[in-house]
User: What shape does this take?
Amino acid sequence: MKHTTFKFFYNYEKEERWINSMSAKGMALVDYFWARYVFEEEEPGKYIYKIEFLDKMGSKNIENIAYVNFLEDLGVECVGIYMHWATFRKEAKEGPFEIFTDLNSRIKSCRKISRWWLSLAAFEGAIGLYESILAAIQLSIGKFSFLSTVIFPSLIMAFAILFFSLGWSIRAKLKELIKESKIYEA
Amino acid sequence: MIDLISHFCNNIFNSKLFVNITKIYIDNYIVLRYSFITVADITSNDTSTPNQNFMKGAFLMPESNERGALTEAVYYILLSLYQPMHGYGIMQNVSALSHGRVNLGPGTLYGAINTLLEKHLIESFSTDDKSRKKQYIITTLGKEIIISEIERLNELIMNGNQIVKENVE
Assistant: This one.
């Protein structure tokens, strides 16, 4: 039997933990789109789930298809790809499931995610700056509208700050990994 | 006379031998260029022309034995590919070789295979059956890299054993 639920996450590690805890309770994720999760009843703990950030967007991208095919040959199933985010699962009886097992690849993957948050923040910041300048010009010619002089610029700037701070934990993790890579090779 | 020379040149440039020789030299050059940095490279102020000695080192035999260490994943993947294998085979083999210590994650394996293909240390191994599972095999360049890595590792182990033993007694 299938069950659909809506839940919103801004941290993929927390999301991963939640999906795995559901799996332990006998609810295996089978489909995923933005904040919509579809679960199917399964024996508890049958699958281990992992979330990965992909270079390219979408499940139709040729690079992503090549990657998913490669993973399938290794016994890893792709539950879904939404934008840059892919969810994979593997049967727990086949042993532990980690997508990245050495420092190099973990650093690479953290760097991708950190850059993605930063680029979102920079994008919003640029628009916010543009809106602020427009608001200043409007003010200087004596025009004042609450919506476009106050709300728009501050809302967009708030998003920029939000995206910047959401990337904080991954940047801290990246820093730790880089420190470790100065001592260990792999 | 000029015709003769140009005909001769064309023959050389089109010949398979020429292409192969160039490929070997370029491959060697790329590997050495990025794995050897000598003191002369760092201290040389003239950046416009490559250091003469360095170029010589790149095309002939290495003069310095400094080079980057391979990661465990790359080392074991290259060793596995002395026999042609597909992804799953590599994962199983590496785990068996290391008695379960090194377990390659699919993302790590995928990244490593693509980088190794790009750097020509491994290549696709074509078989007659048209299964989707792609097989790979180590190249001559890959074998050279493995041999020099084993030398490097031997040196590490010898020095380590010797110094630790001296300090125990």
